Amino acid sequence: MAVAQKLDCVVERVVAHGERVYTLSLRPKRRVPRFRAGQFLHLALDPYDPSGFWPESRVFSIASPPAERDRVRITYAVHGRFTKRMENDLVEGRQVWIKMPYGDFVIDDRSDVMLFAGGTGISAFTAFLEDLSAGAAQTVTLAYGARSKPLLIYRDVVERCARRLPSFQVAYFVEREGEGAPAAVFTGRVSVDAVWPRLQRPFDTSYYISGPPAMLKSIGDSLRARSISPEAIHIDAWE
After folding, report:
1. Which of 93, 94, 113, 220 could bond to 11 as cystine, CB 3.0-4.6 Å?
2. Where in the chain are the domains?
3. What integer best gives the mean pLDDT of the chain?
4. Domain 112-235, classified CATH 3.40.47.10, yes or no
5. Is the pTM of this model over 0.70?
6. What is the phi-psi region of residue 20: left when phi exceeds 0, alpha when psi lies from -120 to 50, beta otherwise?
7. 156, exposed or middle or buried, with CB in 10 Å at 0-12, 13-18, 19+?
8. What value does the CA radius of gyration of the chain take, rounded to a whole number of Å?
9. Distance (Å, rounded) from C-alpha 108 to C-alpha 105?
């Protein structure tokens, strides 16, 4: 397992997706340590002095794939004081500090997988999806939801995975009506009921959930109500 390292980074790019959702591309001054898809980093906005304490920070999923070690990508929505400061202060060329990798929200590649992603929670899965090879034996199903169709911001990553991997399937959900064709997009929040018929072996599948706290609870409750073993349910609950 990689030892966590502290890295000085420059904000290389800021992408505003609308509705106060942003993606940052960070360029570290040296290559990031090896990490596994699903792990996270700590981001600090204040300068770090190695002789002192680590400054205030927040955790974010590493959205870029493990093979990409000269850039790090994170996505966030503005909620609370720290992310408001990120929105106001982070411009291209700004210096920040990260320390990584952390976490064990790592997807098991030995079984079929069902991923539930809400909003920026998709960033816990993007590295895994980009890392999947065309010869992967497992079946991967993704339920990906957002407030509106434009906020399905990693849809390009998902669609590339779908083209590369025949055993991959996806169901999109948007909360606002009229945001997509009914055949491709469900109206409403991410739902176990909507994707359950797609699962070939639901009791031999591992379930991973990443998103807002209310979604973590509702999806977890729905799976347990269907007699899914607690050991098969994995929740990204670091927020």
Report:
1. 94
2. 5-102, 112-235
3. 92
4. no
5. yes
6. left
7. exposed
8. 18
9. 9
